[in-house]
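Final report, closing paragraph on structural work. Over the funding period we assembled a curated collection of sequence-structure pairs, and we close with a single example.
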Amino acid sequence: MARKMHTDEFLRYVAIPLFGFGVVTTTGPRFMGFALGRASPEKTNLYWFSATPFEQTAEAIHQYDFSADTITADDLYAVHSIEKDIIRFLEQLKTAGQSYATPTFIITNFDPKIDENFHKSITLMSEMVNHSAGGRQTLVHLRKFPKRCLDRLSHEVKLIEDGTYTPSTECNEIPFKDVLELTMTIVDPEQIKAEMKGLMMCWTGLIKHHVEAGNYTEIKDAMSFNRFVPLLSLFPKLATMLE
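Its predicted structure, as stored:
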């Protein structure tokens, strides 16, 4: 079993961030993703990372016989099996009952307007959506509140208060055309910008809630949003959105 490390340690090894995706809901924020990191001068690890206000971990899920310092974005799709290894890992999460909630944003460092690799990534990003839990409900809410994260969160709070909010735990629950619609929605830069505002609010708000409630066991390992920013900064566009 791969050793789990704190994301602070993981950041020392990262060479190429691949994908970051976040879940912004009333049940709590989470930021996850994949990156390539240096294992040795000749070997590179594929890492999975995950962060919430109260738990931040990363682990190597595959190793390759190439240097992270010489790989290019084109190589990722033309030569190596990274796509298959990511999908295999997503299947393992689903089989183990450890699936994540459906992302409300996905980010890469590819520019969707000029970089062909962004379009090559759409299939893989669709797999990340398809392997998540609650796609149908997420799509309904995103259609109702496009690029309006705070309004969507307020709506979810009202549903919870009314006793009608029941997040789904089912994966692969929507047809491919809806998976593609959801994927294209959550990679939109304006959608990502709106979600970042919600992520910051939910992150700080959840910690504040536990502090005010006196839940000191919960908060003893809490990561402040300022300490969380370096993980977001693997994707410079996210850091820019916080300015």
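The chain has eleven helices and six strands. Residues 11 and 230 are 8 Å apart (CA to CA). We thank the funder for supporting this effort.
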